[in-house]
Amino acid sequence: MKILVILSAVFFIALVSAQIDRENLNYASQMVRSENSSDPNPSSSASHSDSSSSSESDETLADKIKKGLKILKTKFYSAKNCTLIPPPSLHELHEFFQWTVTHNKTYGTVAEKFCRTIHLIHNFRENHQHNKLFKLGKATFKRALNHLSDLTKREIRTVLMKFAPSTSTRSDPLTALPQARRSVDWRKEGLVGPVGFQYNCGNCWAWASAAVLEGQLRKCRISNESVSVQSMVDCATEYCEGCDGGWPYYGMKWAIDGGIIPTSKYPYLDGEGYCVDRKQEAIGFVDTPYVHDFYYGDAEYIKRIVSSYGPVAVALCVGDDFTHYSSGVFYINNCCTTVNHAISIVGYGSDPKLGDYWLIKNSWDLSWGQDGFAKVARGHNLCSIESTVHYAQIKDVKGNVCRIPK
Ligand SMILES: *[C@@H]1O[C@H](CO)[C@@H](O)[C@H](O)[C@H]1NC(C)=O
Ligand SMILES: *[C@@H]1O[C@H](CO)[C@@H](O)[C@H](O)[C@H]1NC(C)=O
Ligand SMILES: *[C@@H]1O[C@H](CO)[C@@H](O)[C@H](O)[C@H]1NC(C)=O
Ligand SMILES: *[C@@H]1O[C@H](CO)[C@@H](O)[C@H](O)[C@H]1NC(C)=O
């Protein structure tokens, strides 16, 4: 009953500015009932609520709402980390309810659900403000709610964006790279594997390494399999800390001896496991890993390497705007510069209106951005995206090297 009462109270706040109608009232109470996640026997509760919903009068529900509002005010509404001014509107609560259905969300406790509601509506407002700028031509990308929208900034930082402190080694850049093509989309040339999802693990670095290796395996016709992220999370320990961050270069360096293991032989765990030697199952090995640091960023170098080589891994500094990117070319003023996330660049091009961009692949599932991909402004070292590049020359199990074009 507690969930019903408290959430009805959230709903009630909306009534200050909006006229309630019976349909909305039923909708809200149904949503609340169907998500009674503390109920140990969901099927019995569902049938119970079905039979009661038609007989329940508005009066008793209104009473419950009033009672709930009292509790809400004393218990939650003043909770420091979960406030929202002005309070949620009816329209915004609808948005939240719909979102929980779309993304199949259930929450453990009432307090959590309350805080998630607040975070989601906060993001909804920020997106709305930002998209107004987009309409006026003052922004180059659009924002939208996605499956990450109920996370707090802190959760996103600590869960999805962990990156080990920089200990990256400089290696000599290749000297004369071929001229770059005008635009590249390695997806169209079959070098890009499926989009992954980190879940609760800060292993973006391993996903980015895997994307690079998948590109080379496909380019050299060694294998079309996806590369095991978990093998690197568990086994690559030099300057990498599993779910607490790492560098793509060191993930690939580990595969010199550890081997490039297919996901089918070393599946994803969403966490850290014990390292298992699967060298016998390797489909290839890293021959030479490379990392280059460019203090001021070097878009031209990265463009040339992407053009002739394939997908590469890069690091950048991301925050709220990036988390809610939905379309267009990502660009913000005064982006942070201390890198906290790794992704792969799988192409580049120029949008006639929105400018030059990198085509990037993220590891935040298909629900993020454009089916897991995004366009990020190119040539500005935006968020430090052009300050480092990681890639590798690989070989097959017989030792035939897949040469990097020079
Ligand atoms: C919600 O779950 C609690 C705990 O199991 C239960 O007592 C209560 O009746 C449920 N409420 C509804 C509306 O189903
Ligand atoms: C609330 O935020 C503060 C700092 O912003 C943090 O230290 C604290 O752990 C947060 N509390 C909860 C319950 O998240
Ligand atoms: C929604 O979540 C439940 C419980 O986690 C799961 O059993 C169900 O398959 C999910 N449905 C969809 C459409 O993802
Ligand atoms: C990978 O897929 C491509 C395109 O579908 C195909 O031509 C190629 O033979 C496949 N390579 C391997 C090693 O299976």
UniProtKB/TrEMBL annotation:
Occurrences of domain Cathepsin propeptide inhibitor (ranges): 96-156
InterPro entries with a match to the protein in the record: Papain-like_cys_pep_sf (IPR038765), Pept_cys_AS (IPR000169), Peptidase_C1A (IPR013128), Peptidase_C1A_C (IPR000668), Peptidase_C1A_papain-like (IPR039417), Prot_inhib_I29 (IPR013201)
Keyword RNA-binding: no
Cross-referenced SMART domains: Inhibitor_I29, Pept_C1
Ranges where the Peptidase C1A papain C-terminal domain occurs: 180-393
Keywords for the protein's UniProt record, in alphabetical order: Disulfide bond, Hydrolase, Protease, Signal, Thiol protease, Zymogen
One Pfam short name: Inhibitor_I29
Signal peptide stretch: 1-18
Region of interest (Disordered), ranges: 32-59
CDD domains on file: Peptidase_C1A (cd02248)
Gene Ontology terms describing biological process: proteolysis
Residue ranges, compositional bias (Low complexity): 34-55
Molecular functions (GO terms): cysteine-type peptidase activity
SUPFAM superfamilies according to UniProt: Cysteine proteinases (SSF54001)
Family (UniProt): Belongs to the peptidase C1 family.
PANTHER family, per database record: CYSTEINE PROTEASE FAMILY C1-RELATED
Protein name, UniProt field: Uncharacterized protein
The organism of origin for this protein: Chironomus riparius
